[in-house]
Amino acid sequence: MDYKQYKHVSFDLWMTLIRSNPGFKQKRAGLFRDYFEIQRSLEDVQLSVRKFDVLVNEINESIGRNVDTFELYILILNDLGVDHKKYTLADFNAFYAHTEHLFREYRPEPIIDKLPFRLEDLHAASITMNILSNTGFIRGHTLRELLDHYGLGQYFTFQIYSDEACISKPNPLIFDKVYEEISKTTIFDKKQILHVGDNPRADFNGARTYGFSAYLLENQ
């Protein structure tokens, strides 16, 4: 792919630059069950977590807003027959801190080798880059830390996450935030901006509808 025709490249994150550690989700389900004292099997908790992970992602893509991480917790608790009202905001914050610790222990793995070009080559060609990612259980500030851990954060002039923007791809408003950030330093034609991602609806169609160029990665 001739990346030199573009002035800026925007990247999705999950299944574009990173993928989940195989051990993380099961450990997270066990942590969720133990922390909230859920009297159900680990399999039940895993199924509920997966169900609402998928559902909320579909809601975010359909509505264009962002369901908060703690709202996800409440949906799962209710699904498992637990009264969420006995837990406070402080409890949810404490659980997220435990989740972050587990996330660092079972970090997602970089998959940048499947990109059609190297980040180093884009940087060397003075092509600027950003992250544009929808979030769910893991929030943007945690993902920034992850990218810095792998030495990838240095390549991105800015990072936009749906939990912080309160907007999700493919909503044109979140792509507009990308364009606004780019335009703070240089004005490019939208077609000179390439968005790269693995999701046909959120990434490829979302970017093209907004006016950006787009490249769809095939999942491996």
Protein described:
The chain is α/β, with parallel strands linked by helices and 220 residues long. It has two domains: 3-19 and 109-216, HAD superfamily/HAD-like (Rossmann fold, 3-Layer(aba) Sandwich), CATH 3.40.50.1000; 24-105. The chain has nine helices and seven strands. The protein has helices spanning 24-35, 42-63, 69-79, 89-105, 119-124, 140-149, 162-165, 172-183, 200-210; strands at 8-11, 18-19, 109-110, 128-133, 158-161, 193-197, 213-216. Strands 5-4-1-6-7 form a five-stranded parallel beta sheet. Strands 2-3 form a two-stranded antiparallel sheet. The longest helix is centred in the N-terminal third of the chain and has 22 residues, at 42-63. The two termini are 19 Å apart. The mean pLDDT is 97.
Helix share, percent:
40-55%
- When the domains are counted, the total is 2
Summed up, the helix count is 9
Our measurement of the CA-to-CA distance between the termini, rounded to an integer number of angstroms, reads: 19 Å
The arrangement of helices and strands along the chain is EEHHHHEHEHEHHEHE
**CATH architecture level-2 label of the largest domain:** 3-Layer(aba) Sandwich
What is the average per-residue confidence, as pLDDT, rounded to a whole number?
Answer: 97
Radius of gyration (CA) equals 18 Å
Q: What fraction of residues sit in β-strands?
A: 5-15%
CATH superfamily of the largest domain: HAD superfamily/HAD-like
Largest sheet: 5 strands, parallel
> The CATH topology of the largest domain, please?
Rossmann fold
Principal-axes shape call: elongated
Q: How does the helix and strand content classify structurally?
A: alpha/beta
| Neighbour order of strands in the largest sheet | 5-4-1-6-7
Number of strands: 7
Low-confidence stretches: none
Oligomer: single chain
Tell me, what is the CATH class of the largest domain?
Alpha Beta
